[in-house]
């Protein structure tokens, strides 16, 4: 019962915290002293020798202020050497993996806080690419901040650029393949997409500018390989620039000597005031932006789902995405994606994910805000909200459409005899219960077990 486990862990966790640092469980072990009986009893808290959990339930080490140690169901031992408690709390399932983990799987987690921060005038940027996370071969991510009036200068990329506004407001400009200009102002939850080679710019708006996530359709992308206007002109003979723009070379005497990249600009006026009005100027017939959070979500039993791909955001031909709001105690159901790797970005909350890679291989990872997760295509997985607040996640794919297969739906639409023969050959009672549950074959992307809620309420009444 999830509630009883959480309450018990919280109570005992707080009791452990009340012990002076010099008399903590870890310190007693370091000093060669025996542990008090409460850490070896039947109801011992997680990460102590006496704890027993044959079902490998999740533990919110951060929310419960626990220090994860490698004890599991009577096995393991304390850590006597150096120990980074903060890191251990962020990834408790690496310290004490579920008993179901097995095999040799590469790392599928990276935190943006470990990425190099490039600091510029009024902003910053940091990236997660195949260089930081080798499993991230299909997509790369950049987290960028522009203060009010700060400009990410006119530029273009070899790769297509997809973006999600995390906070604040930002103005985007672009020129399409047919010479039409595009300008739009975006807010939290809005998207933009610029195909390969499309020139564009970004500027933070009042009052606090903007922060956003950029995703590029190659894991080998680098922010350092951007084609910048100032960089190009700084490396072009001034005589050529003068000839190109039909002006005397002296006009260009004070062009920037090197790239500007991110810099403080003047605050923009309204779009109508700033829209070009020359004789041959024309407005783009394409829409490079999309208001993802304004979409009507699919309401599931455990949260909300919004999907943006080429079907409702036609310009976005190489990147599809889903926005998930996962309630406390809910699960992004067991599933897999057949057409692309999943590149996940965790915006809020704490999560546990187990990735199944076939050949008896599985590994569990924990994620926090600002973390990136990779699930290679066709590998089975789930996303479990293990914290005390809603979990907000972006699932992003190098694909034109979002696709997934639901384990629940698959088994519900498979002949019942075959399901029972496979899973419940010698357990008729269990098989009957299982078949009853999957009968309607409902695809429920974010699921919350109503039986668990009932058990929690009953346990709460008892307490």
From TrEMBL:
Signal peptide residue numbers: 1-18
Active-site residues per Swiss-Prot or TrEMBL entry: 395 (proton donor)
Protein's UniProt name: Oxalate decarboxylase oxdC
Domain called Cupin type-1: residue spans: 120-253, 290-431
A single GO molecular function term of this UniProt record: metal ion binding
Binding residues annotated for Mn(2+) 1, in chain numbering: 155, 157, 161, 200
Necessary cofactors: Mn(2+)
Cofactor binding note: Binds 2 manganese ions per subunit.
Cross-referenced Gene3D superfamilies: Jelly Rolls
Binding site for Mn(2+) 2: 335, 337, 342, 381
Biological classification of the source: Eukaryota, Fungi, Dikarya, Ascomycota, Pezizomycotina
């Amino acid at each position: 019962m999830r509630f009883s486990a959480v309450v018990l862990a919280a109570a005992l966790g707080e009791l452990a915290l009340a012990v002076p640092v010099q008399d903590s469980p870890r310190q007693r072990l370091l000093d060669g002293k025996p542990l008090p009986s409460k850490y070896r009893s039947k109801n011992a808290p997680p990460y102590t020798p006496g704890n027993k959990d044959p079902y490998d339930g999740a533990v919110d080490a951060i929310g419960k202020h626990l220090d994860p140690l490698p004890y599991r169901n009577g096995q393991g031992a304390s850590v006597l050497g150096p120990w980074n408690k903060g890191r251990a709390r962020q990834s408790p399932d690496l310290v004490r993996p579920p008993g179901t983990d097995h095999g040799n799987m590469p790392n599928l987690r990276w935190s943006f806080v470990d990425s190099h921060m490039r600091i510029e005038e009024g902003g910053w940027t940091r990236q997660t690419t195949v260089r930081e996370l080798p499993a991230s071969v299909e997509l790369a991510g950049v987290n960028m901040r522009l203060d009010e009036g700060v400009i990410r200068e006119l530029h273009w990329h070899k790769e297509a650029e997809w973006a999600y506004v995390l906070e604040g407001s930002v103005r985007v400009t672009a020129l399409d393949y047919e010479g039409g200009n595009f300008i739009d102002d975006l807010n939290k939850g809005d998207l933009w997409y610029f195909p390969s080679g499309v020139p564009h710019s970004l500027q933070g708006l009042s009052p606090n500018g903007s922060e956003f996530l950029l995703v590029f359709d190659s894991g080998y992308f680098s922010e350092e390989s951007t084609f910048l206007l100032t960089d190009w002109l700084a490396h072009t003979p001034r005589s050529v620039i003068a000839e190109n723009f039909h002006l005397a070379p002296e006009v260009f005497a004070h062009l920037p000597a090197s790239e500007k990249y991110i810099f403080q600009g003047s605050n923009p006026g309204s779009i109508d005031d700033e829209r070009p009005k020359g004789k041959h100027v024309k407005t783009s017939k394409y829409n490079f932006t999309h208001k993802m959070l304004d979409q009507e979500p699919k309401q599931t039993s455990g949260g909300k789902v919004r999907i943006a791909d080429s079907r409702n955001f036609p310009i976005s031909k190489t990147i599809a995405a889903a926005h998930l709001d996962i309630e406390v105690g809910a699960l992004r159901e067991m599933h897999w994606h057949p057409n692309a790797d999943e590149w996940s970005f965790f915006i809020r909350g704490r999560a546990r994910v187990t990735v199944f890679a076939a050949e008896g291989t599985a590994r569990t990872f924990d994620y926090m805000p600002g973390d990136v997760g990779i699930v290679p295509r066709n590998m089975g997985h789930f996303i479990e909200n293990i914290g005390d607040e809603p979990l907000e996640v972006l699932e992003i794919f190098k694909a034109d459409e979002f696709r997934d297969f639901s384990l629940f739906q698959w088994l519900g639409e498979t002949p019942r005899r075959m399901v029972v023969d496979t899973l419940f050959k010698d357990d008729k009672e269990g098989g009957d219960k299982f078949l009853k549950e999957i009968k309607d074959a409902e695809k429920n992307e974010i699921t919350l077990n109503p039986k668990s809620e009932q058990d929690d309420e009953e346990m709460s009444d008892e307490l």
